[in-house]
Design a protein that fits this description.
By secondary structure, this protein is mainly alpha-helical. The chain is 59% helix and 2% strand.
Length: 614
């Protein structure tokens, strides 16, 4: 907002500021949604909490390195600043959008288009979705993606003015480098950032390093004058990726003994999954690697491993795998991989990451030995965690890709409601969430009253409220929740409380379950508008962009348009990759497409306006 004001755009500054306040008001009543998810929310929170306390990720178990560490480090950083998570993530989202719009403003984009872009971005319904208020990685990934796009726009503007661009260059590489340690698939950003940097270096006004302390653009610099130093700019993403991952792997090594960042894409476990995939069975299911048939083959032919595979959960109709994929006779890969790691960890009684790697390697080598000796029928092909593309899966690939497009063009938003009365967490985990996210909506006394004793069913509501208001009474041996008195709260009030000026009556505003219908109605109305707007906006953007590109109507002087087309190409590329992953892992949660939806919202107004104007 201050960028716009400083450039004399006061007519834009004040509406932007007012709309930002409205948005903050709409999300101010939402708080962190606390879930016990040992491979998502709880994993990130516990690692961040331990990082702040002990400068490590906590005691090793089979889950600790299942996800990249970036988001845990981000949570620790926010908490070290003393800022509530929901406040920070929403402010950060606004700043990223304003940064992008400030870049377009420097190119002289129509002010009405900028205002429309900001409104669409600010009230993006994904920021009302309940997934936005979980402690998961997707909101951060979305914001970083917007910052990368914004830095591209600013760098192109600086290029035209021959200015030093160190600030925007710094923003680009911070956003890029943190993205690749936040979500696994964001390594694909290399295919976005590197082509852009090549364009900066090799374009008509090429990026040139005069000295290693001064990087400028030089006009009319033909390719023949490009020196080796200029290509260091293109190599920087690789160097940053290498140095960052090396530093984090070193951190893991010094704390846990192995040079591994994520045991799903490095170490012994991916090799084990690849070996299991070699085992040939009559039936194949793209969702299932660890099929019941393969388990029987391993258990029968390798008795040493039977105790491990006996620990795996059996398929049943109540499993989430059954409910999600309607596949009740097997456990799909989204769960079986994690459970296999758990089974090896428990059966081998692993105490450390080093022990776990040795155990997994032993399991793999036993299976490979049987394959090599022809005691088990195995393929000669080598596989990874995600199988390579095969023609037999082409039809499912198209189906899953269409599902992704449906999620993007017709997103299903589940609004975040009022904070729950009771979260499905034990008291210790709830306090860790509360501490890390700096939220007051988790009440440990309320949690205790519901979760630690069967007596909670016999206590009237008024006594419960009295205890919640006065924690010292709740903990009292004589009048508290665990006292021998049938109604210790009321007895305390009669004996002591009323003389101390304590209040027995339930206050109307005390319950956290007060009426929020009007509050939710506003967000629901906004979401309904977007449900009609999304397909119109996105189909128009893609259709008009293809028409303009095909007819060579792109204004070559507007370099930001090239960036927009580069982003559309990257989005298409990313959807193809996600479609391939979805072919084997099943349909993906909508939160994985938050960043794609948000970027489309940002670039659509300008692309539509320019295409129609041309």
């Amino acid at each position: 907002m201050f960028w716009l004001k400083n450039q004399g755009n006061h007519l834009l500054f004040f509406p932007f500021f007012f709309l930002a306040l409205v948005k903050l008001f709409l999300v101010s009543n939402d708080s962190v949604l606390m879930l016990y998810a040992p491979l998502d929310d709880s994993l990130y929170v516990n690692r961040a909490y331990n990082f702040l306390l002990n400068f490590n990720f906590g005691e090793y178990d089979s889950h600790l390195l299942s996800k990249l560490p970036g988001f845990s480090l981000f949570l620790a950083f926010i908490r070290s600043l003393g800022l509530p998570y929901t406040f920070f993530i929403n402010i950060f989202y606004m700043i990223a959008g304003i940064y992008f719009i400030a870049g377009l403003n420097k190119f002289g984009i129509n002010k009405a288009i900028l205002f429309i872009t900001f409104v669409l971005y600010l009230f993006n319904p994904i920021t009302f979705d309940q997934e936005w208020f979980r402690l998961v990685r997707e909101p951060l990934a979305t914001i970083l993606f917007v910052l990368i796009l914004g830095s591209f726009i600013h760098l192109l503007n600086q290029k035209n003015k021959k200015n030093i661009f160190s600030v925007h260059y710094f923003i680009l590489f911070v956003a890029f480098s943190f993205s690749i340690i936040n979500r696994e698939e964001d390594i694909l950003l290399l295919f976005l950032v590197i082509p852009f940097l090549f364009y900066l270096c090799l374009g008509p006004s090429g990026l040139r390093i005069k000295t290693f302390k001064k990087i400028n653009f030089v006009k009319d610099n033909p390719l023949s004058k490009v020196r080796y130093k200029n290509f260091l700019i293109v190599l920087i993403p690789f160097l940053i990726y290498f140095l960052l991952t090396f530093s984090l792997k070193s951190f893991i090594f010094f704390n846990y003994g192995s040079f591994i960042l994520n045991d799903f894409n490095s170490g012994e476990f991916p090799k084990l999954i690849g070996t299991i995939k070699r085992i040939e069975t009559p039936k194949q299911n793209r969702y299932v690697t660890l099929s019941q048939e393969r388990i029987k083959v391993i258990s029968k032919n390798i008795p040493e491993l039977k105790n491990i595979f006996d620990l795996l959960p059996k398929p049943n109709k109540d499993s989430y795998s059954c409910k999600r994929f309607n596949l009740c006779s097997e456990i799909t890969d989204g769960w079986s991989f994690f459970w296999l790691k758990d089974a090896i960890f428990r059966s081998e009684n692993n105490k450390s990451l080093v022990d776990a790697q040795i155990s997994i390697k032993r399991v793999r080598e036993l299976i490979e030995k049987k394959c090599n000796n022809k005691e088990i029928s195995c393929s000669n092909k080598r596989y990874g965690l995600i199988s390579p593309f095969q023609y037999i899966w082409f039809k499912p690939f198209i189906f899953e890709t269409l599902n992704i497009l449906d999620s993007i063009f017709f997103p299903k938003i589940y609004l975040a409601g009022h904070p729950r009365t009771k979260f499905e967490l034990d008291d210790t985990q709830g306090k860790v969430f509360q501490y890390l996210a700096m939220t007051n909506n988790y009440d440990s006394f309320r949690q205790k009253s519901f979760s630690t004793s069967d007596r909670s069913q016999d206590i009237d509501t008024q006594s419960l409220h009295y205890w919640l208001k006065y924690p010292d009474v709740f903990e009292s041996d004589k009048y508290g929740f665990r006292s021998e008195l049938k109604n210790g709260a009321l007895q305390h009030y009669l004996d002591i409380g009323q003389n101390e000026g304590r209040v027995w009556e339930i206050e109307e505003n005390f319950s956290i379950n007060n009426d929020i219908s009007n509050y939710l109605d506003v967000k629901k109305n906004i979401t309904n508008i977007y449900s009609l707007l999304f397909p119109l906006l996105f189909f128009s953007t893609i259709g008009l962009s293809l028409f303009s590109f095909y007819n060579n109507l792109l204004d070559k002087r507007k370099e930001y348009m090239r960036v927009f087309y580069l982003f559309l190409s990257f989005i298409f590329f990313k959807i193809i990759i996600l479609g391939h992953i979805s072919t084997f892992m099943g349909f993906l949660d909508f939160r994985l497409f938050f960043s794609i939806v948000t970027v489309l919202i940002l670039i659509s107004p300008t692309l539509i306006y320019k295409s129609i104007k041309i």
